[in-house]
Each structure stands twice: as C-alpha cells, then as structure tokens.
Amino acid sequence: MTFDKNLALVCPALLLGVLATTGCKQPPLNCTTAHGYFAAKYELESGDASSPCGSLLGDELGLNTYFADAGMRPDLDKGSVAIRPLYLNNYVFRALDDGVDLTMDDNTQAVGDFTAALPDSNEFCEVPSTNRTTLAIPEVAAIEDDPETPDEDESVPAQPATTISYEWSNVNILVNADAQGTQMSAELDFEQDGCRASYHVTGVFPVVYCETNEDCDDDLNGINPNFATECLTELGMCVLSEEPPSYQ
User: What would the mean pLDDT of 137-166 be, rounded to a whole number?
Assistant: First the structure.
C-alpha cells in the first residue's frame, strides 16, 4: 500500500456531552535523523575515478542528532547533526585496538546545525555545512598468525599511516510521518593522503545487506516498504533508487 502523506486523521471528541468528530492535524515533527548507520551511495562528481580517493562506491554513515541544552530539557529549536563514516571508524578502531595513541578532538567529528527547527515545505531539514574533519592515524603493525591454532589464520596485514579528511555540505534529511529522518542526501569533499575527490551522496536507514534487489524488497528487512530501493551489488547494500524523496 502506498503511503498518502496528505491523508488527514480524524479525531473523535466529546463536546458538551454530544459525540462529534473533528479533523485534527498531526503535530509538526522536529528536524531529526534516525540514530544509527545509513547505507550511503557515492556518485563521483570530481576527481580521478581510478585513484584510491575517487573510487569509493559508498559507505555506512553513522548519523545522530543533538539538541542544545535549554536547562533540564533539550532545546528542540537548536538541533545539530553529527556524521561519522564507517570507512574512517575502521581505521580508528584498528589503531585503538593496537594501542595506538590517537589525538582525538573536535575536528574528528563532523557536526553541522539545522537551519530550522521544522522541515521546510518540501519536508526536508537542511544542514548547509559541517566542520572539516581531519584525522592523522599512525602506522599500525601487522598481526602475526598464532602458531598454536594451525586451523585458523588470525594474521592481519599492517595498516599504513594515513591522513583522512571529510567535509559535508548541503545535507538534506527527509522528515515526515513516513520518513522520520530515514532518507538523506549530501555533498562530500573527501581527501586521503593528498588525493582529493567530491561526491554526491544519498543514504537510507537502516543498513541492509543484499545480494539481489529482492533482498531490498523484503518487508521485514527494516527499511520502510514504501521506499524505492535497490541492491548495489558492488557494495552489497540496499540503497535508494532515486534522489530523496525516493518512494515506490
């Protein structure tokens, strides 16, 4: 069944002892995002497609919404969004697991402010820009195979030193009764070790792994069944078929 976003709700009410029905509108939704990882598809806009930085097909993006403190309660008029790619997290966690001392500060987390407390007339919440995040990760030594477990290979190759930067702009989050922050688009300026590329990004929550389009059409996979999605087999994830709003 296709969701009708213009469908009005009818609220029964008792008025002066007489049973009556009156139309009522759903209260407006504050700008927010789903909390967790989005399956994001990257489309190269500038840069060398054969280079390491220009050959990214997508990623899992961790998004979260924060509100300013209004004194014992959140200030819903002042929201912001944090974005953290799994690509970067994998480097960070590998280094931390190896005991590497990383310098983590405000510039390692991309955060931007919503322009308004409520969605615009097109049901989007905009974050025009985020701070540029840059993280330098030292080399991580290889892990040798354990000779005591000949049937299992625990070896892990060395992780070379790298410096990674992200800068997000024109972040748009779809917020309505049917998509409460579960579709997004953005522009990404990405740099790694001097290699630079720009991408257009679209994302859907939650991350669902797939091999075929049928995996993305499963009504029980957690993605809103009204969303138009497809399997990007090179990534092995269900992604939006169209630019948000992507509906069937």
Answer: 86
